Amino acid sequence: xxxxxxxxxxxxxxxxxxxxxxxxxxxxxxxxxxxxxxxxxxxxxxxxxxxxxxxxxxxxxxxxxxxxxxxxxxxxxxxxxxxxxxxxxxxxxxxxxxxxxxxxxxxxxxxxxxxxxxxxxxxxxxxxxxxxxxxxxxxxxxxxxxxxxxxxxxxxxxxxxxxxxxxxxxxxxxxxxxxxxxxxxxxxxxxxxxxxxxxxxxxxxxxxxxxxxxxxxxxxxxxxxxxxxxxxxxxxxxxxxxxxxxxxxxxxxxxxxxxxxxxxxxxxxxxxxxxxxxxxxxxxxxxxxxxxxxxxxxxxxxxxxxxxxxxxxxxxxxxxxxxxxxxxxxxxxxxxxxxxxxxxxxxxxxxxxxxxxxxxxxxxxxxxxxxxxxxxxxxxxxxxxxxxxxxxxxxxxxxxxxxxxxxxxxxxxxxxxxxxxxxxxxxxxxxxxxxxxxxxxxxxxxxxxxxxxxxxxxxxxxxxxxx
Length: 467
Fold this sequence. Notes:
Aspartate Aminotransferase, domain 2, globular, three-stranded antiparallel sheet, Aspartate Aminotransferase, domain 1, eight-stranded mixed sheet
């Protein structure tokens, strides 16, 4: 069985690589969070056997990482991941002028301030309560339920729990239904922190491919029937990071197959409202099966600082979620809930603002890729980002070169279950056009560095999340 380092690295990426190149690839795994601080790495001998390389090469790899502060080694003992000891371990984006493309999110909607002001009387009316809200405010749960009804899924407020964001919702669902050692179906690529959550709950991950053209539905349904995973995590609307949207026919087929295989599907709709010009509106996956769990969030349509999400599920699971939730938290902040009530009443204005912003961001990315010349801009009808085919397995090298140009761009493998997708890079379309233009200019410089064979200096230590 391969070590976690080799799973994340990908044996194919190590074939023929120099010691310096291997050290750079491992450094990238550490910097984007695929290897965690304190994690034990294989011995030089074990790593040499796994990669079918000489032990002297592995000794050189670890020596380079130790020199730069990315591992610590004990003579005759273990090698563990660390980070360089510097005064600051993360970029200050204002002082250092780094542009961070690991965050695919917009700034706040223009209506947020007014919604906050309007929410204060509602908050004041709650002062005589305990302030704890395990299910969520009734009026907010009703507003979320109405949004599902408008989209074609009969829903009542009793089917809804309000959470502190969509990832919080995913973690609550996994903690409630988890059985360590069970299998979980996941898309590849997908949202990295969902993979982290599944691993933390002890799941064995079964990837199914997604590209710009969508899902391999035959592969997905065959995997469901053959492996019978306990859960599946899907992003069917403006998939993160590819931007693909699943057809209604595929949704119906997948929902029926999951029900037959006994798989509980967790559907993440965080990106479902990020439409630019898709031209059609699918039914939510929950419309095809009552057993589907749906999570959603206000973070992408309103503001990431508004930590407000929800879970829609059948009543029996809602009761189990409520029993487990106090071990996580005792509810979601009331102010955030009061603000969300106001914002959900203004969904047409919110979605129009999102459409305008994403349209401008998309145009800036497309123009930047045109200037690079070697890269094609894929069709991106909505969502958070464009999933760029680099034409060669150079994503990690490009990511490292970009850091040298003060650009943080997580490589394709960060969105995978381990070591693959080196041909791809996610570029957000959520940043303001002027900042995106500058980011694309820096990416062009990094691209030229990689094409010309320039080696980037050891990157600054940035252990940032991917959003």
